[in-house]
Specification:
The longest helix has 28 residues. 50% of the residues lie in helices and 8% in strands. It is of the alpha/beta class. The structure holds adenosine-5'-triphosphate (ATP) and magnesium ion.
Length: 408
């Protein structure tokens, strides 16, 4: 991984280097040593430059410092955001930081690793198994009276003693898919261990993780530290594109990336898709300068990939039976023509969902929850209104055949 990602404390506000165009001529041969894959449009890959998450990175590193000093942290961390905004990338970045700093034992998990509470002891610091033996590691049904005096207690004590020797961090991605019993047990263990030893649990998931955690036990989650992983700002989006290009000998002509940043809609996945398209075009031409020509030539590649992404999301909504509700919600957002960044109140959302499924209140709630899970809508922390999760997906849902354009 390159130095940007490895940098422990990323420099903020670095002004991109703009070289003069006559530095930009380069022969195709010299291009050969440029990596084929520079940007990382995909799932969970660390991008070549991890932009705009300084606040979240700072929060995580501060926790790590506390743990390293033998201290305890007051709460679990819950990372939440619509799909494609970089939750997994942030977890991955932190995992690498922990390893690089040798400050703690980190375990990265997904719900597939823990389908039953019995799995907890196995996945939480596997070396514990060697010391306490198989017979003791089973976790009894959580919520039963045996939790207090039972083997969860035993696991907790072992973890406390282990974390006192060496801090422990659990990074659980896709936590919105966590089995409820497993989740309850995990939150229970985390609360107890965290109170007495350097231990940190981080849960990452799509916006409906709120509902899932509430089902596991509201008292646990509503006091956790919440990190919202939404879109980037313009400056960070620019850096995410310009820095890797410049790092690899590219030259960004003044204003060339303005339209790219605007079209990426500040959405991390689209930023990587754009970067990939620009990079492919540069390599193909043996060029180094990103100018209006390169941007225009790369645009169809971006559009193709973006529309493929929208089509996949559209098919997913249809597969989940959410299309009528998604369309109704999209229409409700579209009606807010006076607002550049439209939002819906709870009542407006309920109304739109209810109108699509008039006779089944419970399934309407389920459908709305599913829309949150799919990243279609979300409610950033501290806001009381709903926002679209994936930019312009709603336009696509309303006009899939025209790629989201109302008047082709
Ligand atoms: N801060 C960032 N700067 C630049 N690119 C980023 C950033 N964060 C993530 N990306 C890129 O955005 C894309 C989506 O990231 P990631 O898969 O981590 O999102 P996610 O929130 O985990 O999505 P999902 O909910 O679908 O799992 C990836 O291509 C990743 O490289
Ligand atoms: Mg992810």
């Amino acid at each position: 991984m390159n130095e940007y990602v490895r940098t422990r404390r990323p420099a903020a506000g670095v002004v991109p280097r703009i070289l003069e165009p006559d530095n930009a001529v380069c022969h195709a041969n010299a291009m050969d040593d440029r990596p084929r894959q520079l940007f990382m449009p995909g799932t969970g890959q660390l991008p070549p430059y991890f932009a705009g998450r300084q606040v979240e990175q700072r929060t995580l590193l501060d926790c790590l410092d506390v743990l390293r000093d033998g201290g305890t942290v007051p709460a679990d961390i819950v990372m939440m955001g619509p799909r494609g905004n970089g939750k997994t990338a942030l977890l991955r970045w932190f995992d690498r930081e922990i390893v690089a700093a040798r400050a703690a034992d980190a375990v990265s998990l997904t719900p597939d690793d823990i389908t039953h509470p019995d799995d907890l002891a196995r996945v939480l610091f596997p070396s514990i198994l060697d010391r306490i033996g198989k017979a003791e590691v089973k976790v009894p049904e959580v919520g039963s009276m045996s939790v207090e005096g039972g083997r969860v207690g035993s696991l907790t004590r072992r973890l406390i003693s282990r974390c006192r020797k060496r801090p422990g961090v659990v990074l659980l991605d896709e936590a919105h898919n966590l089995d409820l019993d497993v989740g309850r047990a995990l939150l229970n263990v985390s609360q107890r261990v965290r109170a007495e030893a350097p231990f940190l649990l981080i849960l990452a998931g799509t916006p409906n993780l709120v509902d899932r955690l509430a089902l596991m036990g509201a008292s646990f989650w509503d006091r956790s530290k919440r990190l919202d992983i939404g879109r980037l700002d313009s400056a960070a989006s620019f850096e995410a594109l310009a820095k890797p290009l410049e790092e690899h000998g590219g030259v960004v002509a003044p204003d060339a990336l303005d339209s790219v940043v605007a079209e990426s809609q500040l959405y991390p996945y689209f930023i990587q898709v754009w970067g990939d398209a620009l990079w492919a075009e540069l390599r193909e031409r043996g060029a180094t300068t990103v100018d209006a020509d390169i941007v225009a030539a790369a645009e169809p590649r971006f559009h193709e990939r973006r529309d493929e992404y929208y089509a996949n999301r559209y098919r997913e909504l249809r597969r989940e039976g959410c299309l009528p509700v998604a369309s109704a919600v999209a229409r409700a957002f579209a009606r807010q023509t006076s607002n550049e960044n439209p939002t819906l109140t709870d009542e407006e959302l309920d109304h739109a969902v209810g109108a699509a499924l008039p006779s089944a209140d419970r399934s309407a709630q389920k459908a709305a929850a599913r829309l949150r899970e799919l990243g279609y809508i979300w409610q950033p922390s501290g806001k009381i209104d709903w926002e679209p999760g994936i930019p312009r997906l709603m336009g696509y849902v309303l006009n899939p055949r025209t790629g989201g354009r109302a008047n082709p």
